[in-house]
Amino acid sequence: MLRRVSVAAVLAFACALTAATAAQATVLDHEDWEVFITGKQATTWSFAAEQPEECITYYGTPSQVANGNGRVAMVFTTPAKQPLSAETAFFNGRMRFTWESLGDHRIPAAWSKRGVFSTSTGKPCGSRPDDPVPLPQFADASGCGRQKGELNVYASWKDGVLIVQGAVEGVRGAESCPGVFEQAMHVDPENDRCTPGSWIDGTDGTYLQELHTPLPRRKFSAGRAFTVKAQHEYDCDFPATIWPGNPVLKADLVTSYEVTFKPRRY
Questions:
Q1: How many other C-beta atoms can be found within 10 angstroms of the C-beta atom of residue 240?
Q2: CB-based contacts of 93: which residues, under 8 Å, 6+ apart?
Q3: Those residues with Cβ within 8 angstroms of residue 239's Cβ, 6 or more apart along the chain or in another chain
Q4: Average pLDDT, integer, range 3-16
Q5: Per-residue pLDDT tens digits for 159-177
Q6: Report field, pTM of the whole predicted structure over 0.85
Q7: Residue among 180, 165, 220, 152 nearest 73 (CA)
Q8: Are the C-beta atoms of 163 and 155 separated by less than 8 Å?
Q9: Neighbouring residues of 146: CB distance < 8 A, sequence distance ≥ 6
């Protein structure tokens, strides 16, 4: 299973740390910001593997086969009249960035998931020539489709780098749709992940892929609106552990978004 990181827990820790720092510093200047985040993310995946077997008797082809493919995606945007909030403060030649601890950090998101996954076994050894081939077993796909949900967003800034994290909420029945890491694939997404190990991973579509984007401090100190763009693609191969022939799960993850900061005017 993928490692799960609670965005709410990260937010609570960050707010507590910020409060402790603020108590020891003299703020020389600060700015309140309206924050707008707009973007999308998609993972497209495919898998094919075979366990060949032969029969001593003439008839029968008991090979086992697994096949699947799918896509999980989200599109999200901050409503124009419901911006998120952040604050910057300058003190002792440094800048403190605070993601507002009060208020709602959720923004509307359209989330979709489609997929198909099947396993099948050929004729057992000793079958008659006219015996039917066993039908493939398909994974439950009743939960596939498009839903409205929310993205719980958290942003941080340190040493000239902006980090945006997010978790999808309000989506139901997603487990009843074949996904990136089906159990019968026998892959290890935690140990074989191709995204940075310490970052929140978005490959299965549950989380927004964590990206680290350069953002110089002078953008904030200028006191004017600005937009920063982030985009990255991960082309991942996850080796299957029990299937012969070294088959791999192929997963292509693309994340892109824009974050706009506007000085809040009262």
A1: 20
A2: none
A3: 187, 192, 246, 247, 248
A4: 47
A5: 999 999 999 999 988 899 9
A6: no
A7: 180
A8: yes
A9: 110, 111, 112
SS3 call for 40: strand
Q: Are 114 and 69 in contact (CB under 8 A)?
A: no
| Position 119, amino acid | T
185 DSSP assignment: G
H/E stretch holding 219 reads: helix 218-221
Structure tokens at 5: 């990181």
CA distance 127 to 38: 58
Tokens of residue 1, six digits: 């299973």
Binned at pLDDT 50, 70 and 90, residue 71 comes out as: very high
Closest CA to 209 of 86, 43, 78: 43
From residue 62, alpha-carbon distances to 56, 144, 246 in Å are 11, 31, 20
Q: Which of 109, 110, 107 is nearest to 36 (CA)?
A: 107
**Which residue is listed with tokens 């601890």?**
101
Closest among 149, 178, 185 to 75, alpha carbons compared: 149
Q: Strand pairing partners for 41?
A: 74, 255
How far apart CA 166 and CA 155 sit, in angstroms, is: 9
